[in-house]
Design brief:
Helix content is 29%, strand content 19%. By secondary structure, the chain is an alpha/beta fold. It has a 6-stranded mixed β-sheet with strand order 1-3-2-4-5-6, sandwiched between helices. The longest helix has 11 residues.
Length: 143
């Protein structure tokens, strides 16, 4: 089962779910992820101890039951998270997929593709400005 950071979110509020490729503190975009997690309706899910592979649908079903609200945005940082993202999208077709990177992801067009690079000289909220703008437009979070 996926582990993760789930903040206190009022039940039923739409969520932005960060599908992390590892422990937040150890991923290259940790500062940017921590910045987004300031919003109560943004949650992060670390990967299961075992790669879901063909079990992605079962993992997605369990994860969806544990989330405190319906996912409205899924953020995949690497192609490896696409299996889980795809399974969650099948359960929540109104959900947007955001993808961090310049390579396309198989079978699904992302609503937003962004550069996940971090620049220590720039504040994380500035690096995430495009993401914050979209979260505000969707009514999920505000700065």
């Amino acid at each position: 089962m996926a582990r993760g950071y789930v903040s206190v979110v009022p039940d039923g509020d739409p969520l932005c779910v960060l599908l992390l490729p590892g422990v937040l503190e150890e991923v290259p975009f940790a500062r940017r992820g921590q910045d987004l997690l300031r919003a109560p309706n943004v949650v992060a899910v670390e990967p299961a101890r075992r790669a879901p592979g063909f079990l992605a649908d079962q993992v997605a079903r369990r994860l969806a039951k544990r989330l405190p609200g319906p996912p409205r945005v899924l953020v995949a940082f690497r192609e490896e998270e696409y299996g889980l993202a795809s399974a969650l999208l099948a359960r929540h077709p109104e959900c947007e997929l955001w993808y961090a990177g310049d390579e396309g992801i198989p079978g699904q067009r992302a609503a937003l593709v962004f550069d996940p690079a971090d620049d220590a000289a720039v504040a994380p909220f500035q690096l995430n400005a495009e993401l914050w703008d979209r979260l505000e437009a969707l009514g999920i979070a505000s700065r």
